Amino acid sequence: MPENSSFDVIISGAGLGGAACAIHLKESGLKIALIDKAVFPRDKICGGGLSDRATNALKRMPANAWENFLESCNYLHLEGISITSPKGETATLNCPVTYGYTVIRREFDAFLLKEALKSNNIKLFSIEKSVAYEYKNEEIIVHTNKQKIKARLLIIADGFNSLLARQTDIFEYKEKNAAVCVQTVFQNPSQKINEKNIELYYPSRCLPFYFWFFPLHDGSVNLGFGVKSNVLRKEKKHILEIYKELLNSDKHIQNKLSGMQQISEPQVALLPLQRLNKRFSAERIMIAGTAAMLVDPISGEGIGNAMLSGEFAANQTLKCFRENNFHASFMKNYDASLKKRLSSEFTRNRMLLELFNHEWLINIGVHKVIANNNFKIKIEEMLIKNTSRWKLVNPIFYI
Ligand SMILES: Cc1cc2nc3c(=O)[nH]c(=O)nc-3n(C[C@H](O)[C@H](O)[C@H](O)COP(=O)(O)OP(=O)(O)OC[C@H]3O[C@@H](n4cnc5c(N)ncnc54)[C@H](O)[C@@H]3O)c2cc1C
Asked: Is the CB–ligand 1 distance for residue 296 below 6 Å?
């Protein structure tokens, strides 16, 4: 296998976590190899919802990434979120900051990668799959399906199925906490939908997960849902059978999709919805994004966390090179920064996910938002300011 010239840093995965990391390193002068098995633009199964964590991550990027996003990407700026209970009542919350935008992942990911590649210290190896790594002297060597690439530091950001993350002894994935998801796009051939809210609908069959309807800039709707993997085992059904059954029998879904046609094949993917992992780094290694299972357990959002962890990995990279220290104990600063930001949020949202198993509680909560304006305002404030959200895990709060 040919051995390539060495780099300072290898980033495996040029998705949002990898590209965000590269963008934060593009003015560092470090020589970076960015490896991706795909050729961009490439599709990614996703709802395409950008929350404030993602938009804030974009705003913190150097070289006007945020302005470039607004100028060159298609997006829909959202006004809020509607939540529909299993009973079929819909409550609408106005929080444009929290639920910011919807994008098409194919475009958005290609945009972010293009931002990273504006710097000539970043070399992209596309259509190249990272399969393993090994330590050698003061370096780490990534074996791809084509060659070996050497560097002093490796950032693993190659998503849920990461082979490199699975090779580390810090990898944690709990299948029982994963959602099996279906995602597709619908469009009304004669009329664009003019919706500015994303909607989460909680059919009893999907609890504690939801069915999402995310309006897109072109008047189409990105939709999908998740169910617990053990529900599928119990029902002895494929997720696509459940999808068809929901479309054929659920009144709320039928109303939403009335006059619309499915314009893309439904795709299936797993989404890890677990507690925050204990470790994200090892000697000369950091793991970012979904390779590190950084997906919010209640909302399924992973875009903002991928970009945030990419940024934190870049910050730690700069420290490593400044101090010439790549030891596991020093890399733990990266773990600490992620835990400081995400630990309490993940714990709370895992608890909230348990509550969302109870149909009656969602029915009561949604009804209270509709019937009690003060309660509605309180929830909107929690969502906008990210304060007092621990109240949400107390069932009494909804009664
Ligand atoms: C159905 C579904 C809906 C979702 N909806 C939302 C949503 O609306 N909002 C939200 O915030 N999050 C959502 N998420 C989560 C979000 O998609 C992920 O958390 C996010 O894409 C993580 O980014 P990443 O960069 O870590 O990984 P990815 O986006 O998966 O990127 C990984 C990259 O690595 C490459 N790669 C993979 N393996 C290798 C390899 N061996 N070698 C080299 N390259 C490799 C891939 O080609 C890819 O480009 C959803 C997820 C699913 C499954």
From this structure: no
